[in-house]
Amino acid sequence: MASKSRVVSRSKTSKSLPPTELAPPLKLPEQAFKLEYAPALESKSIVSIKDRYDLFIGGRFISPKTKKYFATINPATGKKLAEVAEAGSDDVALAVEAAKAAGEKYWRTLAPAGRGRYLFRIARIMQERARELAVLETLDNGKPIKESRDIDIPLAAAHFFYYAGWADKLEYAFAGHKMRPLGVAGQIIPWNFPLLMAAWKIAPALATGNTVVLKPAETTPLTALLLAEIIQEADLPPGVVNIITGDGKTGAALVEHPGVDKIAFTGSTEVGKRILSSSAHSAKKLTLELGGKSAQIVFEDAAIDQAIEGIVNGIFFNQGHVCCAGSRLLVEESIADIVVKRLKKRMENIRLGDPLDKNTDIGAINSAAELKKINKYVELGIKEGGEYYEPTKMNLPTEGFFRKPCFLNQVSPSGSLYREEIFGPVLVISTFRTPEEAISKANDTPYGLAAGIWSEKVSKVLDTARSLKAGVVWANTYNKFDPSSPFGGYKESGWGREGGKHGLLPYVELIKPDAEEMKSKT
Amino acid sequence: MSKIPLKPLIPVAKTIKLFIGGEFPRTESGRSYKVSDLKTPQNSIHLCLASRKDLRNSVEVAKNSLKSWKQKSAFNRSQILYRMAEIAEGRKGDFLQLLQDYFGAKPDEAIACFETLIEAWVYYAGFCDKIDQSLSSANPVGSPFQNTTSVDALGVVAIIGDEKTEVAHLLAGLAAVIAPGNTAILIVPGKLGIFAGWLGEIIATADVPKGAINILSGDLGELLPHLGSHMEIDGLASFVQDTAANSSLRSASVSNLKRMHIFDKKHTLGMTSILPFLEFKTLWVTQGF
């Protein structure tokens, strides 16, 4: 799953057969399914992890004023990887001052093309050190190496490369408008895509002339700190990017610091609302990338095999720790049985295990707390009457935090599992009879981040897409990302977009050069 | 039979009511407040003091009306906004009179205000079918997909002025909000409420779908917390310049993460006045066979 291979619909197969008489699955000798995979471990030797990491402020690594450090562990083993500094409010203040000074002294006095040069340089060093970043990401986060290697790291580098090019072309982005940077951006990112989220935040902020204080998640700080080293290597003027580690308290101090002009947050809707509350009385500009409960709609005219791959990728990619995970499967009633049957069969072949093994599809759950939360949700779902299924032949590693992928069938739209974000490898399945019902079920959520549509009929796809209240709609594919493609949600899934030219907007004030005030007096 | 002339002439005063769902109801609360005619105090009128229930009714019709207003072609919305300007021209005299009688505007000031309003309505009329073309994008993703970002309306937007808000700017903001397909609830508190009738009659005769624009006169302090906390209001457009009021509105709107935009005192014609009331939808379509 989640490989970079092309997802291509095979329209010919389904066109020639009515949906109820789908071709039977290929009959292979029983032995074909019993092939064991020998472990193919990625070497850890490429990355050297220090015992202790300090805060990256003003271009240097400095020890925290709190004198406190906390451990970050490898969720696949439960063992400590390193200690990182805990930034207190004094450290936050220092970082914000450094960012402010760097904006005035260097970043805004630099020609726009110069900003671009630095971003290109960062992108290149990231590409050169890609394998190192990938291994470190997998160690600290628990995600499979094939995902960090093929998705997270290349995309993160691509983000810097993409926004580098915007730096000296900003006046082309929104016709008739110039852009003015906001100042110091305080950025708080989650643990599910640590380096990728750092890139999503830092690259557009810098391209538009802002300076940055970034706080990575408490459980996954290491790749951001390696990025700090890369930034040093790229010789970015000191203070343009500051990276401070800590927990929610550090984040709160950053949000509340009066020197911060813009807050960009990716994380849960609950914390997003708290940030909005605490900044309601300030003039800080705010963008939020929050939770979701995204629907995958499978119509009876879908190419079933491709849809099954899409469903699996949609919910089990990154252990389901994805804000846009396709966590609600809506299947047209006429094909529900066959979809569920094939999904079960496909899930039997998922490989769960050591994240560093190149064969691994599903790695470790990021933390003990998350694992507990997910298990609690599954229990609740079973109690509420969902039909539970998990692969039967799958073994979990004996150490670390692991969780079998699973689904709950026949989940009622009023059930907790249907409505609440679980953020784990748990799919809920429900059926529909008409496209109208599918759309109304898909939209019946306070969230509005993403949706998937599976149908071979273009007009149906386009009409469904138009009616869905979701910021990203994938048709006959799922969980695809690109620096040029805006990402972000409707409703309670957030404010603003990241990626593409729309991803510039959160970091600027648009100036209309010929803005003419209406001159009237009542 | 000889006619008995009414002397002195007894004028027929107009009752100004709320405008909800294309109709002109009185507030369900039965309450009213008095607004004074500055020149002839005996002409003072009583306006409806809208209640929380009136607001909820307005939100309901505004939400239902999204289907008809948002689904209209952008060109069609464009023509309807232009029609509003046309009808307003025919009622110019009333507008000038209201400004002079209740706000003490001088004739030339009143005319300038009216011109500002018409300029804005015509401007946004012509913008409806340019928004998508200005803000959409075809995104060159590095994989075999057709990837486009297009513009969608936010939903139900409440537009809030206070007694210091200049009516032309408030109504310019209304046009910016509805141009992309949003439906609106316009809050005209205090003496701004006297425009509820004038505006309602224009909307009612300009082919604007019922419920797409609703107008409530009343007390801002009373309505603000309910505007913030209502889960079916998607956006807030504030012309209120009072920082404390805006902060409390923002705090109250946390529940469903309403998009909120605070306009400057003077409305600036342009895309920046439309942008806060849009959503962007990115569609990935698989390419290949």
Explain the layout of strands and helices.
The complex is a heterodimer of chains A (522) and B (289).
Chain A: H1 11-16, E1 52-53, E2 55-57, E3 60-62, E4 69-74, E5 79-85, H2 89-107, H3 112-128, H4 130-141, H5 145-166, E6 178-181, E7 184-188, H6 194-207, E8 211-215, H7 222-233, E9 241-243, H8 248-256, E10 262-266, H9 269-279, E11 285-289, E12 295-298, H10 304-316, E13 328-332, H11 336-348, H12 368-383, E14 387-389, E15 406-409, H13 416-419, E16 426-432, H14 435-443, E17 450-454, H15 458-467, E18 472-475, E19 494-495, E20 508-511
Helix pairs in contact in A: 3-5, 4-5, 5-6, 10-11
Chain B: E1 32-35, E2 45-48, H1 52-71, H2 74-90, H3 92-103, H4 107-125, H5 131-135, E3 137-138, E4 145-153, E5 156-160, H6 167-178, E6 183-189, H7 195-204, E7 213-218, H8 220-229, E8 235-238, H9 243-252, E9 259-262, E10 278-286
Parallel strand pairs in B: 5-6, 5-8, 6-7, 8-9
Antiparallel strand pairs in B: 1-2, 3-4, 4-10
Helix pairs in contact in B: 2-4, 3-4, 4-6, 8-9
